[in-house]
TrEMBL record:
One of its GO terms (biological process) is translation. Pfam families: Ribosomal_S13 (PF00416). Gene3D superfamilies: 1.10.8.50, 30s ribosomal protein s13, domain 2 (4.10.910.10). InterPro entries: Rbsml_uS13_C, Ribosomal_uS13, Ribosomal_uS13-like_H2TH, Ribosomal_uS13_CS. It is found in: Cytoplasm. This is Ribosomal protein S18. It comes from Theileria orientalis strain Shintoku. Coiled coil: none annotated. NCBIfam families: PRK04053.1 (NF003140). Keywords: Cytoplasm, Ribonucleoprotein, Ribosomal protein.
Length: 180
């Protein structure tokens, strides 16, 4: 294991990669997980494919290494990364295997939910109602936002008046008249 010391003028504390602020003090694999759509395993594969040392700090990366990482994350299929590693396999619209990151990931998820709601599928309706979508029981858990309480019964007798043809009469007297 070799220890490399970089001078403070070469070290970047915050990097801007794919519209995301990445902490330069963390190791490259961990730092790349700050990008939405990139996890630890995918970041490790990308670093190995780019030839970047995984024990290196993100702030020590050169501009060429950063560009290489960005191109591999942007189009992993060109670099022989298997399709089962990607987060968008067999897209509904295009039928291709893709890997979405950052803003494209958010828009794809939003489009998927809108498609499910528009088609009135069970999963889409559960999303619309704000309920669990994967078959969980919801009788006792997941009661966020709803108050469940017991209302007290009113034990006082209430005098009920009936308005018939503009005159007010007692209900008991009215029922006596009806049933004689």
């Amino acid at each position: 294991m070799t220890i490399t010391v970089t001078t403070s003028d070469q070290f970047q504390h915050i990097l801007r990669i794919l519209n995301t602020n990445v902490d330069g003090r963390e190791k490259v694999v961990i730092a790349l997980t700050a990008i939405r759509g990139v996890g630890r395993r995918f970041a490790t594969v990308v670093c190995k494919e780019a030839g970047v040392d995984v024990t290196k700090r993100a702030g020590e990366l050169t501009a060429d290494e950063i560009n290489k990482l960005v191109t591999i994350i942007g189009s992993p299929a060109q670099f022989k990364i298997p399709y089962w590693f990607l987060n968008r396999q067999k897209d509904v619209k295009e039928g291709k295997h893709m890997h979405n990151t950052a803003n494209t990931l958010d828009s794809c998820l939003r489009e998927d939910l809108e498609r499910l709601k528009k088609m009135r599928l069970h999963r889409g309706l559960r999303h619309y109602w704000g309920l669990r979508t994967r078959g969980q029981h919801t009788k006792t858990t997941g009661r966020h936002g709803r108050t469940v309480g017991v209302a007290k019964k009113n034990t006082h007798e209430v005098e009920v008046r009936v308005f018939l043809h503009g005159s007010e009469r007692d209900l008991a007297a009215y029922l006596k008249e009806l049933h004689g």
